[in-house]
Write a sequence for this structure.
């Protein structure tokens, strides 16, 4: 057996998976509504010989594709949801395909397709070389809403995994030996009494007043929370008309912290503020937990294994046209953002002298609470050892969730980063399929880092995932 056969197969089939990623990029859909991408990936995997189970954890667009039998059981995570308002042509200047329409400004069309590419390549290699074990691809919905994998985890679909791999499109190639924040998403609903705002305001009890008082209270709370905490909100209902005292109003909060316990305590304090606002306005308040993901638990063993693959896999090479495209995109980013981005990347020891960063970087230690962002992959990382990388899919200063990201991740630059990630995941997964000691080491590290803490989903059992709207 030789790994070269695996990588040669992947090289010769790149165009097939490029077309899949482009197809999903051209049909962006929001979380829990990714019917197009989910159906397409399921079809591709069934045709490749996988057994596909849909509607996982009551999430209609989530699915699991499986091949093989017995141990070890190795998973690959995929995502495919887009973001609102980020429609953009593959252009270095602002050019929406459709104003205010969704777009793949976080590259999940690449993220999921790389997983499909890796798992199909592995399946073909396993079949030809009669290797024992089970491989799975998890089609995960609504990562941008930070809850899709939580519903899947609550249903137990990750429980029997030995290890799992994932990646994320980025602006450089690197192992992600750092943690992301835990998060709770909660929406508060205030109810009052309507009245004519001019003729009889004294008869009204304003739900909007309650929302605004809650927001003021939370702004004072910010001074008295642990370092690294984040609290941000959106008023989701502010009433119907200015001359009607609103009897209904709501506000949606994201709470982030270093770990699940820290966020749970922030939630306790936030509820107290909401109750105080309701008391002050003689309104009532209820709430609904909509997301509840864990901080990520990095696994250095698996990340170092993925780094080792970068030494045997051909690096990304860019054409002059791609270099010029990346430079033009960067010219359309605010200079202060460019400066800040390069400073942050340089602090990791990454060379930022070029707009496209081709080398692969590795930090040989883990950092808890490395960045303030959050992802529902955190839930999976507390259930099974998880390896993760990021690869260069755009120029150095491109920010996620922007039109520049949509353009870059839809371009040939994004496709090259996707294929690179797929090769690294497939190559690392093959090593773990054929070397049980690697899995044992990853699991030993996992149990040590978890330190006796068990996983309990952060979304209550009575909360159900949204249904597709289209």
């Amino acid at each position: 057996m030789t790994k070269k056969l695996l990588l040669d197969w992947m090289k010769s089939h790149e165009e097939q998976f490029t077309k899949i990623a482009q197809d999903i990029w051209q049909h962006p859909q929001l979380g829990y509504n990714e019917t197009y991408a989910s159906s397409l990936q399921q079809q591709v995997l069934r045709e490749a010989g996988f057994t596909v189970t849909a509607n996982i954890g009551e999430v209609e667009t989530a699915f699991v594709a499986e091949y093989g039998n017995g141990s070890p059981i190795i998973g690959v995570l995929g995502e495919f949801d887009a973001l609102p308002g980020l429609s953009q042509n593959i252009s270095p200047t602002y050019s929406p395909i459709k104003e205010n329409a969704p777009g793949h400004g976080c590259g999940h069309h690449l993220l999921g397709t790389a997983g499909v590419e890796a798992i199909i390549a592995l399946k073909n290699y396993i079949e030809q070389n009669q290797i024992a074990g089970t491989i799975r691809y998890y089609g995960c919905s609504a990562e941008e809403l930070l809850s899709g994998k939580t519903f899947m985890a609550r249903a137990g679909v990750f429980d029997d995994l030995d290890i799992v791999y994932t990646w994320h499109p980025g602006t450089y190639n690197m192992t992600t030996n750092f943690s992301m924040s835990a998060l709770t998403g909660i929406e508060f609903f205030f109810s009052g009494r309507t009245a004519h705002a001019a003729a009889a305001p004294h008869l009204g009890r304003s739900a909007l007043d309650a929302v605004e008082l809650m927001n003021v209270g939370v702004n004072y709370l910010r001074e008295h929370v642990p370092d690294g905490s984040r609290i941000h909100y959106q008023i989701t209902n502010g009433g119907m008309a200015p001359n009607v005292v609103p009897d209904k109003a709501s506000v949606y909060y994201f709470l982030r912290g270093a770990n699940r316990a820290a966020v749970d305590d922030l939630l306790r304090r936030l509820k107290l503020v909401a109750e105080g606002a309701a008391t002050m306005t003689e309104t009532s308040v209820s709430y609904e937990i909509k997301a509840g993901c864990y901080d990520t638990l990095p696994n250095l063993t698996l990340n170092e294994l993925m780094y080792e693959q970068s030494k045997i896999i051909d690096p990304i090479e860019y054409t002059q046209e791609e270099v010029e495209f990346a430079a033009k995109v960067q010219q359309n980013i605010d200079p202060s953002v460019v400066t800040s981005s390069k400073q942050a990347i340089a602090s990791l020891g990454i060379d930022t002298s070029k707009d496209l960063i081709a080398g692969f970087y590795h930090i040989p230690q883990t950092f808890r609470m490395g960045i303030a962002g959050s992802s529902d992959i955190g839930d999976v990382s507390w259930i099974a050892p998880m390896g993760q990388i990021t690869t260069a899919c755009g120029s150095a200063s491109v920010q996620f969730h922007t039109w520049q990201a949509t353009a870059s991740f839809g371009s040939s630059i994004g496709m090259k980063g996707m294929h690179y990630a797929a090769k690294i995941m497939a190559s690392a997964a093959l090593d773990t399929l054929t070397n049980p000691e690697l899995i044992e080491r990853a699991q030993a590290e996992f149990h040590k880092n978890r330190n006796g803490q068990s996983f309990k989903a952060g979304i209550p059992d009575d909360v159900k995932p949204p249904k597709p709207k289209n």
